Amino acid sequence: MAHRALIVGVSGIVGSALAKTLLADGWQVWGLSRGRTPVPEGCHSLTADLTSAESVASALEGIDVDRVFFSVWARQENEKENIRVNGAMIRHVLEALGSKLEGGHVALVTGLKHYLGPFEHYGKSGAPTTPFREEQGRQPVDNFYYAQEDEVFAAAKKFHFTWSVHRPHTIIGFALGNAMNMGQTLAVYATLCKYTGQPFVFPGSKAQWQGISDMTDARLLASQLEWASTSENARNQDFNTVNGDVFRWQWMWERIAEYFDLTAAALPDEISPLEQRMDDAAQQWRKLAEHYNLKEADITKLASWWHTDADLGRPMEVFTDMSKSRKAGFTGYQSTLDAFTELFDKLKAENIIPR
């Protein structure tokens, strides 16, 4: 009998990639979201306000699944509110499903802020030594990832299911209207540079430019999620999730520039965040969209300047170790450069950026 999965956050980068992976492998898939963007073909769409226990319970009434995947968060004005809101969203879903989950599995996607702390915490106290390893544990700061984990752990004890936690680095994947989408943001930025003559300047820190980094393809994360939900070795475990290669941004920036027929600018003496330089970007993009008949003229649905600035502006080297996952049996690999170029090709094919 095919597994029956509920993906919470199905329209995001991770959720949509996971839905496609599971559907291709014969799973039955239900996707829970706010209903603002389409879900992958073949997925049963459910709509709810995740912050409302009543709305979630109503949406999930009669739904019988044995696997639940969470890849969802709602950005709030501070971390205490992040904890309150994002922890509650996990709790609402698990309480609504309740004893139906007995003997099943729940997987939670968080990220490397598990080791770094929330955005405003970056660089303010010591981060673990790179590469980050699962046994390094939590930082002594407020973090909504920890609140989400604790909701899963508590429900697992109450309803008798197994769990896994997955910690990707910055995710590369295709999803419109997503708040954390570096690959798509860089594609939009490069396109603007190409057609307006702006220099293609790296918007991050010297530490990121020179240090070792890695990233996570959404398709690889989807494969790890599927594996963990069916593997004895992955029960009640936390796993880092990255592509398996490492790079330095000073090298990757040149490769991205070459793809868009640009010349990579030298690293400036002072950090040059995108959010501070993109005042005219919305108007410029509307003109490009009209000229090339692009699918989306609203740049806010394509680019997330603040998130890319936060990731690339980190004042320390960030990359992770995959040994635990490898030893447990997950051996997936993805070239990060190929992940970028395949995303850029898809954005062209979908008429999101000019061909």
TrEMBL record:
Gene3D superfamilies to which the protein is assigned, alphabetical: NAD(P)-binding Rossmann-like Domain
A Pfam family this chain is assigned to: PRISE
Every PRISE-like Rossmann-fold domain range: 66-354
SUPFAM superfamilies membership: NAD(P)-binding Rossmann-fold domains
Name of the protein: Nucleoside-diphosphate-sugar epimerase
Organism, scientific name: Biostraticola tofi
